[in-house]
Amino acid sequence: GEKSEDGSTETEPFSLTLDFYPNPDHAGIYMAQKLGYFADAGLDVSIQTPSDPAAPIKLVAAGQTDLAISYEPEVLLAQEQGLDVVAVGALVDRPLTSLIWLKKSGIGGVADLRGKTIATAGIPYQDAYLKTILARAKLTPSDVKTVNVGYGLLPALVGGSADAMLGGFSNVEGVDLRLRGKDPVVTPVDKLGVPSYDELVLVAKGSRLGEDPEAIRLFLAGLARGTAAAIKSPDATAAALLEANSDLDPKLTRAELVATLPLLSKRGFMDEAKWKRFIAWMRENGLISAPIPISQVLSNAYLPGEIPE
Amino acid sequence: MRRWLPPALVLAALIGLWQVAASSGLLASVLGLEDFLVPSPAEIASSLWENRSLLAENAWVTLQEIVLGFLCGLAAGLGFALLLRLSGLLRRATYPLMVASQAVPILVIAPVLVVWFGYGIGPKLAVVALVCFFPIAVATADGLRSVDPETTKMMRTLDASRRQLLWRVEAPTSLPFAFSGARIAVAFAPIAAVFGEWVGADSGLGHLILQDNAQLETARVFAAATVLAVIAIALYGLLAFAERRIVTWR
Amino acid sequence: MRRWLPPALVLAALIGLWQVAASSGLLASVLGLEDFLVPSPAEIASSLWENRSLLAENAWVTLQEIVLGFLCGLAAGLGFALLLRLSGLLRRATYPLMVASQAVPILVIAPVLVVWFGYGIGPKLAVVALVCFFPIAVATADGLRSVDPETTKMMRTLDASRRQLLWRVEAPTSLPFAFSGARIAVAFAPIAAVFGEWVGADSGLGHLILQDNAQLETARVFAAATVLAVIAIALYGLLAFAERRIVTWR
Amino acid sequence: MRQDTKMPAEAKEFATAGASPANAAAPGAAVSIRGLGHSYDELAAIEGLDLEVPARGVLGLVGPSGCGKSTLLELVSGLQEPSAGEVEVGGALDPAERLARCAFMPQRDMLLPWLAAVDNAALALRNRGVRRGPARKEVERLFERFGLAGFERSRPAELSGGMRQRVAFLRTLVSGKPVLALDEPFASLDAITRAEMQGWLAGALAADPRTVILVTHDVEEALYLSDRVAVLSARPGRVVEELSAPAPRAADRDAAVTDPTFVAVRERAMEALHRGSR
Amino acid sequence: MRQDTKMPAEAKEFATAGASPANAAAPGAAVSIRGLGHSYDELAAIEGLDLEVPARGVLGLVGPSGCGKSTLLELVSGLQEPSAGEVEVGGALDPAERLARCAFMPQRDMLLPWLAAVDNAALALRNRGVRRGPARKEVERLFERFGLAGFERSRPAELSGGMRQRVAFLRTLVSGKPVLALDEPFASLDAITRAEMQGWLAGALAADPRTVILVTHDVEEALYLSDRVAVLSARPGRVVEELSAPAPRAADRDAAVTDPTFVAVRERAMEALHRGSR
Ligand SMILES: Nc1ncnc2c1ncn2[C@@H]1O[C@H](COP(=O)(O)OP(=O)(O)OP(=O)(O)O)[C@@H](O)[C@H]1O
Ligand SMILES: Nc1ncnc2c1ncn2[C@@H]1O[C@H](COP(=O)(O)OP(=O)(O)OP(=O)(O)O)[C@@H](O)[C@H]1O
Ligand SMILES: [Mg+2]
Ligand SMILES: [Mg+2]
Predict the structure, then answer these.
(1) Is D80 buried (19+), middle (13-18) or exposed (0-12) by CB count in 10 A?
(2) What are the tens digits of pLDDT across the range B154-173?
(3) Based on CB atoms within 10 Å of each CB, which residue in B52, B149, D232, D275 is the most buried?
């Protein structure tokens, strides 16, 4: 977006589809939006919020949105399905998905899960996490009762119809439970034997990258600035989030934000070695069949060199 | 006035009981319903009051989706019923598809809806219309078929064309049926709008419910649901009133 | 035989067109439907075949939920309609609640359902029954009201008690209406079962759809949806057949 | 059964029906109508009617179309409440009690389309708690004499107008109530069938008398079947003239109706009807 | 309007209705019924019927209840197809053409409950494309003479049985078709009103002749209104005897029906009816 002589900026429309409803994971994005970093970069960013986390990656592949937030496992599955999608940056470069139970349940460790009920979001690769986690404690999936509760994870755990839940985020559900005085025990899956991966990544359509990568570059640069700003001033970030989403609960959001900011990837860099290890794990667990050439799934080429001020 | 008393009383009684049970911890102990699962009426009421502007905004969005979607569904349903009536072949040919269309989870076609209608009011209207269309079409079609054959003979011997038979006899006969269908449809419409919003939305009661559900904001979830219920009852009442005004010969 | 031909042909034609459009890339170019959004009939068919046993298992689970839930809803709906008929007070008092019950998103009461019924077939039945109950109750109630007052006079002068009037006149009169309602209900039942499974399940077509959707297994998602549609059509046809057998005087 | 076995066939048939509690309660109830008036909104259907029907008496009602005959029958049977005056049936003013004592045959047959002819005819018995089997037997015996043999299992839609009317007539009779309010029971019957039915009714009433109010358009019919005949004026219906029949329900109908006195009375009735029709 | 201005009032009223295309097409169509038979499943309703009605002629049909009169009218009007034999109306055998030439008045009035009396009566005109306003005017003029004045806007449920029947009769007449198939048009009218209507019909037919098939239970009515009267036997309906009326539609009705020859013919008809009723 080059400035025209009269000083007004020509901005190009740019659509971003979130992974799910707005939450502190998106702090950098809303900050950049609020502080006009995207506008400076000549982008007029519109933010879409789906309710089905599997939808965004399809929409990006369908060319319906310029950029979408998805999950590393989802990206790999998309590749397996032949979708033309590439991860161009990490929003959160480590697992947030956690195994959560309540202290009062008296569960000391994974081994105590034998015969217990575990609520999941009904996502196969997360069931695979559980398998790996249980295996490390010498348990098999048949030793526990898992039930797919879709959106009902928290109610299931808090309501006592499940003893533990897998699928909640440490920085969202985890914080939420703590805030409600349920003192939960929250363990991200990479602490339980699942190879680390980038929980939230930004994906673009491969062919699109070939044609004009510029907008993507500009966006990622703006996002990096936004993230930096967010980390610097949490309060302003909270304000930005709440302003943009009046239906967020202020108290909860602030708490989540505190827990989230340290987890945000500053530049969005993705570690190929880490991805390779995770791909291997996915194959071992039969989630993907063919090997996936790393160059196809991710590219750090569009990230800003150093974080611009 | 007297017509409103009984429902009001029953409602008051229920809410009262519920409140007592909740505050006396009975719900938790007996029914196992802790207040973050099912808030007490008092909590819901205060949430309704505190979030009145937020709820109002979102309710307005959803109400538009419901009303417009219902109208589309109504038009489609009535039109389809007439078509079915006029062509037995068409009837046999498309009826199964019509039924099938009701059995497809929105989740499955959600991306398609987005591709076609974007994130605007489009997909919500589509979902609401799809849901409302069916009961209206089925009920009206049944109504059109329910004409006494003797009456048809009478019309035929008076040189009625197919169209005249349809408009002068079959349509009036089917009106009460059509209203049944419409009332059923309008009661389902709010839910449909909620699902429509789950296709992708940044406002509306459905959006709010999902958001709050994720945050375990149970009181506000129930507040939103209450607003939905009120909308449904209001629209249903409106239709029932219209029916009494239009179907005067029964 | 001839009755099955038209729908079969239409269906075949549609599927054929769809396949052609898909394989010739028309869908993608014109409608923007890439095959990972909407797989081609061929893909769906092969997925149906490859996963036949998996689909069959889960379909069986869901079918049970649908049928049992529908039966509960039917019983409740008919019973409620009779009650409404017998007491005008009850009618005015509970009708609004009945309507409201349809406007509450399952998501909102899901935790309650789980607490009460656990993760077994219970919550699914509850959801299906809740959805089926309404159209049946409304349609039947309307039918019971639609008796010609002259007929009522005739029965009264023959010393009919309220119950006899209900069973000998009002019930038969309302049968066609009840069937309309039941057919509408049974078409909605599969969706209801799917949502019921989203409350919490480890098998069933709804569960399968949720999994495959997260897995981007679009072909199998559509395969499952197809099975749902077939179930709906089959049950609808069954009811229509029963109606022809029972309502012989029209 | 109250009747002894020596009575004629018609009687027996009729009698069984007669064995109803209502009937036992009030053996042949008298009907007295005092200052009766009824209006639908502004429209005055009948006005200041006074009529007396003794227990087991038969009153014929003739009057111009739309003068309120059907309305009157509904008022008597307790199906509507009068806007003025009162009706007493077997000593009861209360509409519910009147309803219990009167069997009203509406002008339109009102057969139930989903019931076979027999079951339509047996409705009253079924309502009284008689099981389907016996109830059907009960009425089927009469189908033969009513010229309906072979149509026991036919649905109303498969019957001719006159057949439907006969089923409706039968349905009313077997209710076995002390008072019969018949609204043009034979209007759609041809001369022969009609004469047969009249003869049958005459015989039945002879064996097991009832109080009957008979609305008919056929003055001759009224005069043959009734003890007294009231001629009503055009709306609002008032009594123009009341005549007593010369030979009520005489055994030889043809002879009776051609008898000069009968003809004379008929002329007077016609003349009154003329006067009443303004 | 084909009629000139010198004709009597009735005629004019009737005439407007007469100005229908169908009528213009076939001025007074003749009806001939050859070897006609009809069965419902096993049940033979009518068998081997042969009847001729000349154009503008009036045929009266009397016969025992259930002998197939209504069925016959439906067959003639092209509302049902015979299982044997053929019907020709105005030279047309094709049912659709017959339907276009015949106006059938069903035994039950079949008024539409949601339409006011006028609109029910005006149905035929409306179907023919006449706007509501003119159509209503058209029929309202006749409401007076039919004794329905003041009930133009009443719903059928607010009319008496006889009033309903008159509306249905009116509805059939104004269709202005060359052939009228009337199924007991006056069955629920009292003697006076009935005589009035008969007189009106006689006058109207005199001014603007039509081919009429008149089913009635009243032999006298049949003989007064018809040129010829066919007496049918009990089901399956066959022609027992055909008589020609002594004084069809005579100006002075009372005189005509009391005339000895008329009475004699009536006796013969009754006697034939007896024979036919087995
Ligand atoms: N339900 C009603 N609402 C309004 N008016 C009515 C109703 N029923 C009857 N009337 C009016 O009351 C008057 C008398 O009606 P009713 O049926 O008693 O006459 P009737 O003597 O039986 O006539 P008919 O011999 O033709 O049967 C008529 O003018 C009719 O229009
Ligand atoms: N739709 C039908 N289905 C079966 N049988 C029928 C049907 N309509 C008439 N019938 C039978 O055909 C015979 C003749 O019926 P129809 O109505 O023509 O007699 P009708 O001469 O008009 O008698 P009425 O004088 O009593 O009106 C009757 O025995 C009747 O049972
Ligand atoms: Mg009457
Ligand atoms: Mg007939």
Answers:
(1) middle
(2) 999 999 999 999 999 999 99
(3) D232
Query: E159 in ligand 1 pocket by Cβ < 6 Å?
Result: yes
Phi then psi dihedrals of residue E67, to 5 deg: -90, -5
Q: From the CB coordinates, do chains E and D have 3 or more pairs under 8 Å?
A: yes
Of E209, E253, E252, the residue nearest E11 (C-alpha): E209
Fill in the DSSP letter of residue B27: I
Contact C68, C125 (CB under 8 A): yes
CATH node for D4-277 = 3.40.50.300
- CA–centroid distance, residue D170 to ligand 1 (Å): 24
CA distance A257 to chain B (A): 14
Query: Residue A216: which of A7, A25, A38 has the closest Cα?
Result: A38
Cβ atoms of A64 and B114 within 8 Å: the answer is yes
Run of H or E including A146: strand A145-148
- For chain D, give the longest Cα–Cα distance: 55
Q: Which amino acid is at D230?
A: A
Using an 8 Å CB-CB cutoff, list chain A residues near C201.
147-148
**E residues 212-251 lying closer than 8 A (beta carbon) to B:** none
Radius of gyration of chain E (CA): 18
Report the C-alpha gap between E184 and D250 in whole angstroms.
Answer: 29
User: How are strands ordered across the β-sheet holding A200-205?
Assistant: A43-48, A12-17, A67-70, A200-205, A85-92
The structure tokens 């201005």 sit at: E5
**Bond preceding residue E236 cis, omega within 30 of 0:** yes
- A6 — pLDDT class (breaks 50, 70, 90): very low
Q: Which two tokens stand for residue A240?
A: 């930005």
Show Cβ contacts of residue D129 under 8 Å, excluding neighbours closer than 6 positions.
none
Q: How many residues does chain C have?
A: 250
CA distance A150 to chain C (A): 6
DSSP A210-269: HH--HHHHHHHHHHHHHHHHHHH-HHHHHHHHHHH-TTS-HHHHHHHHHHHGGGB-SS--
Task: Give A73→chain B minimum CA distance, Å.
Answer: 20
Domains in chain C with CATH codes: 40-246 (1.10.3720.10)
CA-based nearest residue to E188, from E105, E126, E84: E105
CB C60 within 8 A of CB C68: no
For residue D214, report the phi and psi dihedrals to the nearest 5 degrees.
-115, 110
For residue D177, the number of C-alpha atoms closer than 13 Å in the C-beta half-sphere is: 31
pLDDT in tens, C150-187: 999 999 999 999 999 999 999 999 999 999 999 999 99
pLDDT digits (tens, 9 = 90+) for B84-138: 898 888 888 888 889 999 998 888 888 888 888 888 899 999 999 999 999 999 9
Secondary structure in 3-state letters for chain C:
CCCCHHHHHHHHHHHHHHHHHHHCCHHHHHHCCCCCCCCCHHHHHHHHHHCHHHHHHHHHHHHHHHHHHHHHHHHHHHHHHHHHHHCHHHHHHHHHHHHHHHHCCHHHHHHHHHHHHCCCCHHHHHHHHHHHHHHHHHHHHHHHHCCCHHHHHHHHHCCCCHHHHHHHHHHHHHHHHHHHHHHHHHHHHHHHHHHHHHCCECCCHHHHHHHHHHCCCHHHHHHHHHHHHHHHHHHHHHHHHHHHHHCCCC
CB contact under 8 A, A152 and C218: no
State residue D182 phi and psi, 5-degree precision. Answer: -105, 120
Partners of D244 in the β-ladder:
D228
CA C212 – CA C221 distance, rounded (Å): 6
Closest partner residue to B158 (CB to CB) among E108, E127, E155 is E127
Cα E101 to Cα B163, B164, C13, E74, E90: the distances in Å are: 20, 18, 44, 13, 8
Which residues are within 8 A (CB) of D125 and not within 5 positions of it... i.e. 6 or more apart? D17, D134, D135, D138, D139, D174, D175
